[in-house]
Amino acid sequence: MSKLLLVGCGKMGGAMLEGWLARGLAASDVVVAEPAEALRPKKVKGVASSSEVKEAPEIVVLAVKPQSMDGVLPDLKRFADKGSVFLSIAAGKTLKYFAGHLGASAKVVRAMPNTPAAVRQGITVSTASKTVSEAEKKRCHELLEAVGQSLWVDDEALIDHVTALSGSGPAYVFLLVEAMAAAGAKLGLTPEMAMQLARATVAGSGELLKRSSEPASQLRVNVTSPGGTTAEALKVLMANDGIQPVFDKALAAASRRSKELAG
After folding, report:
1. Element (H, E) at 148
2. What angle, rounded to 10 degrees, do the helices at 95-102 and 69-81 form?
3. Quick one: average pLDDT of 172-194?
4. Which of 120, 101, 99, 122 is nearest to 111 (CA)?
5. Which residues touch 91 (CB under 8 Å, ≥6 apart)?
6. Average pLDDT of 131-159?
7. Does the CA dihedral 69-144-9-107 come out positive or negative?
8. What's the rounded Cα separation, in Å, for the pair 263 and 257?
9. By C-alpha distance, which of 55, 12, 56, 6 is closest to 31?
10. What is the pTM (predicted TM-score) of this model?
11. 3-state DSSP of 7-50
12. Are 87 and 60 in contact (CB under 8 A)?
């Protein structure tokens, strides 16, 4: 076994490929297979493109959309029989699902990344079948770290909660920007200025949070002067009917839907 096979090279698969190459993976060790004939794999110098890979790869990274998975697995089962590890980033596709298509002894890692992986600022949580060795998990961990942070859980059921928090989370942040901008416009700012202020504030705060060793709660306190404007706004946001119960309900709904989609 030698090559790393990337099945699907869309936004997420392409981001992973760029991250691997940036971290020193030789282009000659990667093969990209795009199952949809109408699509063309991202062209990267030195990276081979082929839908007819014969040699069993060390790792097969499944980066196709969940609805396309049924169509690609039959041809890939031959690699499972030869010991390849399957690393899937397809939402809703469980270890049980892959065992049903690849065989009970197949080595499968189920990963849940999020879209900031496109700029190598993502976070991924993974779980593995019992057939995956620690060395193989480490190799998958290294591949996932190329696009951000990587965490592991033993209980696959937790992936539904991860999906609700970090998998869907970027949409919540973008909605926050929309809401802040809309509120600013209602106060009299132009919509363009309000959006620019909201975007810059959220992006800058995220970078500050990333660089700081202090917890989010302390960073909040740091910017809140007693009796000031921030404190007045937080009285509303942190009230019993404020933002926390809304997020509680939203994440519970997302987690519930994740379980439903997984069957």
Report:
1. strand 148-152
2. 70
3. 98
4. 122
5. 66, 112, 163, 167, 258, 261
6. 96
7. negative
8. 10
9. 6
10. 0.89
11. ECCCHHHHHHHHHHHHCCCCHHHEEEECCCCCCCCCCCCCCEEC
12. yes
User: Which amino acid is located at 61 in the chain?
Assistant: V
Of the candidates 42, 43, 78, 85, the residue with the CA atom closest to the CA atom of residue 62 = 85
Which DSSP state fits 165?
A: I
* Closest among 44, 16, 140, 32 to 85, alpha carbons compared: 140
Assigned token pair, 212? 């700081």
What is the number of helices (H) and of strands (E) in the chain? Answer: 10, 8
Q: Across-strand partners of 88? A: 62, 110
User: Per residue in 98-109, pLDDT tens?
Assistant: 999 999 999 999
104 Cβ contact partners less than 8 Å away, ≥ 6 residues apart? none
In whole angstroms, give the CA distance from residue 63 to residue 124.
14
Residue that has been written with the tokens 């901008």 in this structure:
181
Amino acid at position 211, single letter: R
